[in-house]
Write the structure tokens for this entry.
Amino acid sequence: MPLITVVGSGRVGTSAALQVAMRELGDIVLLDIVPGLPQGEALDLNHTCAILDLDVDVRGSNDYRDMEGSDVVVVTAGLTRKPDMTRLDLLLKNAEIIKDVSRHIREYAPRSKVIVVTNPLDVMTYTAYKTTGFESSRVMGFSGLLDVGRFRQIIHSRLGVSYKSIRGMVLGEHGDSMVLLPRLTHVGVEPLHRFMDEKTIAEAVEATRKAGAEIIRLKGWSAHHAPGAGVSLMVQAIIKDEKAVIPTSAYLDGHYGERDIYAVVPCVLGAGGVEKIIELELTDEERAKFKASIKVLREAASQLKF
Ligand SMILES: NC(=O)c1ccc[n+]([C@@H]2O[C@H](COP(=O)([O-])OP(=O)(O)OC[C@H]3O[C@@H](n4cnc5c(N)ncnc54)[C@H](O)[C@@H]3O)[C@@H](O)[C@H]2O)c1
């Protein structure tokens, strides 16, 4: 039975654990620094598994040694963005937490694939890569499925077309400079612009960019159901060696003309982690937006020491 460890037993961590359990991808270890929290959440999740006949065991722990033997480690530990904070404000505090978690992963789960969720996402993933010392293919960040999912939800609500028939892609930062690609968004086999005018598409792109902040404004804390769902698809792609094309924050080593930085790009995910980065043919405008997004990420990364 594969083993999936989720570090951080808050909202996103427990949502991810629930959705991983629902897919019966493996046994789960929930970790947190708060005594009792992961144990209580694990008990609750085990009861969920009993009710739904999911043959998965969930264990809660405050001891990193319990992640030994993990195939995948999902990192959600950290602080969340408050209404008046940008993701980049979180940078310095969460970087210290990610460094601490990464040292433990290196010690106790040295063969695992690591999926970082903590914000600011791309720079935290870079921090995990630098601190674990793992090959870049084994360290990746979650966010692309969330941002594309939000865009698809708007298209679905406008056009009344099944989610199954709406596909899209995003590049760059998980943040304000994200580059959604309406030109490469398809409804059935036709491009989105056959169904929506330019103004409506621009509004949908903007609403997608602001969706995370809108959720915080409305309910007072950040999204967790949708992130949990998206994380479970990345875990599944790795555990089941799916070779699924998923927008993933990945280490760029000459890809898209960039080096030594993490940013969201389409990746083939399988048992090896990020098995391939797909280089899309971009228009000049898309490429310029991507470069601008990379600049934002480089500025953030330059504030950290490794
Ligand atoms: N990438 C994305 O798309 C995405 C989406 C939503 C949220 N997030 C981010 O995910 C992170 C978690 O969000 P949340 O809503 O679950 O927050 P939360 O406050 O509910 O949970 C965070 C948990 O991390 C724990 N923690 C802190 N330091 C730790 C450490 N050193 N070791 C182990 N556990 C530790 C805390 O005790 C807490 O239980 C935030 O940074 C948030 O911004 C990312």
